[in-house]
From TrEMBL:
Transcription regulation keyword on record: yes
Domain HTH lysR-type stretches: 1-59
Highest taxon listed in the record's lineage: Bacteria
Organism: Nocardiopsis coralli
Sequence similarity: Belongs to the LysR transcriptional regulatory family.
Record's protein name: LysR family transcriptional regulator
Entry keywords, A to Z: DNA-binding, Transcription, Transcription regulation
Cross-referenced Pfam families: HTH_1
PROSITE patterns per UniProt: HTH_LYSR (PS50931)
Keyword match Hydrolase: no
Lineage: Bacteria, Bacillati, Actinomycetota, Actinomycetes, Streptosporangiales
């Protein structure tokens, strides 16, 4: 039995003294109202209305229970309103600061279309975990190895060179013996990719193909790395999506598999489940990613 629905009908009929008017106020047909009152009486164990009277006259039992029924209906209405407010409350989500305002706008628009309200916070990789720990955001896109990720972003090298289908090998950056004093072209790693599963792997390939230690360098910011790319013909380690936004030509790496992995983290499991269920594809487009191997985790 729908206890709240039955009590709602009971209250409206009891206040109006009429099954017809009470049913209209409750938004149901009169036969439905009668069945709900009968079910409530059976549930409570005694009649609520005197069936011998011409009007819907409350019994003494009905008069005693009417105030409590009013409170129950009012609490149910308050609960519904609170649920609506909770659903409208924005989910604070920390996202990579390498994403553009247009990326953010597209993600926000797709979220609204799915009935979700996001408060997007673009911040650096290390700060996303700090915000989670401080409970300043409910969720965050954290960087993880590809085998733990829900979204995986392939990384390559971007520069002012002309792109070609064959990709690029790091060994092509090797400085010849005749150029003893030459520094060689550098590959810049930005803070978003300054993690062991990217940085250390790239360093191992650097050593294996004979590049100089300084040819793989850590940048303080994307802007700083971009300056070196534009002025020294260096290369930026980034995604194809990021390269397009920076107006750079992007080449896949042929002698290393480097990937950014992302997963949705946070203490709010319910919000995380809703975001993942409704926005998995939108987040993949937002990140320039493909679906990862950690989706079922």
């Amino acid at each position: 039995m729908d206890l709240v629905g039955a009590c709602r009908v009971f209250v409206h009929i009891g206040e109006r003294g009429s099954f017809t008017l009470g049913a209209q106020a409750a938004g149901v047909r009169q036969p439905v109202a009668s069945r709900r009152v009968s079910a409530l009486e059976e549930h409570l164990g005694a009649p609520l209305f005197d069936r011998s009277a011409r009007r819907a006259q409350l019994t003494a039992f009905g008069r005693d229970l009417l105030p409590t029924a009013r409170r129950l209906v009012a609490l149910a209405d308050d609960l519904g309103e609170e649920a609506e407010r909770a659903l409208r409350r924005p989910v604070t989500l920390a996202v990579p600061d390498v994403c553009t305002p247009l990326d953010l706008a597209h993600l926000d628009a797709e979220a609204r279309g799915s009935g979700l309200h996001l408060d997007l916070r673009p911040v650096a990789r290390a700060e996303r975990r700090s915000l989670l720990n401080a409970h300043q955001v409910r969720l965050a896109l954290e960087t993880v190895p590809a085998d733990e990720a829900s979204w995986v972003v392939p990384l390559g090298l971007a520069g002012t060179h002309d792109a070609h289908a064959g990709g690029v090998r790091l060994e092509a950056l090797r400085v010849g013996r005749a150029r003893v004093g030459a520094a060689g072209r550098r590959v810049w790693i930005t803070p978003e990719d300054d993690v062991p599963h990217v940085r250390d792997r790239l360093s191992r390939v650097r050593d294996a193909v004979g590049l100089r230690p300084g040819q793989v360098a850590l940048a303080r910011s994307v802007a700083g790395a971009l300056t070196e790319v534009l002025t020294r013909d260096d290369l930026l380690l980034c995604s194809a999506h990021q390269a397009r936004e920076l107006s750079l030509d992007w080449l896949p790496l042929r002698d290393a598999v480097l990937e950014r992995g992302y997963r949705l983290s946070g203490a709010d499991d319910e919000a995380g489940a809703r975001v993942h269920a409704h926005l998995a594809g939108a987040l993949a487009r937002f990140l320039g990613a493909r679906t990862g191997r950690g989706d079922d985790a």
